[in-house]
Write a structure and sequence with these properties.
single chain; 232 residues; alpha/beta; Rossmann fold; four-stranded antiparallel beta sheet; 10 strands; disordered C terminus
């Protein structure tokens, strides 16, 4: 089943000086796509575009065969619920506790107002060692716990697609192993992955195909590499 299709898709990020031009790309259920690039900003722009955090300058973006309408933010909510975004620029609302942020995700996408986190989410919090920090505000968390909080929030959405940036960089060994275990269960359910990683083992386990971003163009099976982008 095809989940995403981009047709002559172009997107820009003036602040970072990045742009992607006339991208033609598709993603099917259960695929694991490794992104390789010369410039890290291009990877981030591609991920943010797929997460609908930046809007296309031109072209078409299809999800499950239907073209997304970017004219109104509310038109994108159904799509946003199906996409998990685990990246360094993912953030929480600063004046709410971690628990309130997690519950807000349920409220926002499912239009229900639980009094507490579900047993499944609490189990994840305990497995990742976040349960004792749920009452803290995001600014009180170290970088690893902040990334774990983002991971759990995105899992709350029960996504069809997970976008993952440098998963090993902000996680300790135990948390990283736990995250890979969670990903395995997602892959077994047919969730599609798009990721940028410097970890060869992660690449080998989760990649079914590779794309390369060259000079603002997305190329299938471009230059050789595991997904390593030059730091810039």
């Amino acid at each position: 089943m095809q989940l995403i299709k981009l047709v002559n898709y172009s997107v820009e990020s003036p602040l970072e000086g990045s742009c992607l031009r006339d991208v033609n790309f598709s993603l099917n259920r259960g695929e694991g796509v490794s992104v390789v690039a010369d410039v890290r900003h291009d990877v981030r722009l591609f991920m943010r575009g797929l997460a609908s955090l930046v809007y296309p300058a031109r072209g078409s973006f299809f999800f499950r065969g239907k073209e997304l309408d970017f004219s109104d933010y509310r038109n994108l909510l159904g799509y946003k619920q199906k996409v998990g975004y685990v990246a360094s620029d993912a953030s929480f609302i600063s004046n709410l506790s971690v628990q309130d942020n997690l519950m807000l995700t349920v409220n926002y996408f499912e239009n229900r107002f639980p009094m507490r986190l579900s047993d499944d989410i609490m189990k994840l919090c305990m497995q990742f060692g976040l349960d004792a920090r749920l009452d803290l505000r995001p600014s009180c968390l170290d970088p690893e716990k902040m990334r774990i909080s983002v991971i759990i929030r995105e899992i709350c959405k029960r996504p069809d697609i997970l976008l993952i940036e440098r998963p090993k960089e902000f996680l300790g060994t135990a948390s990283y192993d736990m995250f890979k275990s969670v990903l395995r269960s997602f892959v077994n359910k047919g969730v599609a992955l798009i990721f940028y990683t410097l970890d060869e083992d992660f690449f080998r386990e989760f990649s079914t195909r590779r794309i390369w971003i060259e000079d603002g163009k997305v190329v299938e099976n471009g230059k050789q590499g595991i997904g390593v982008a030059a730091c810039s």
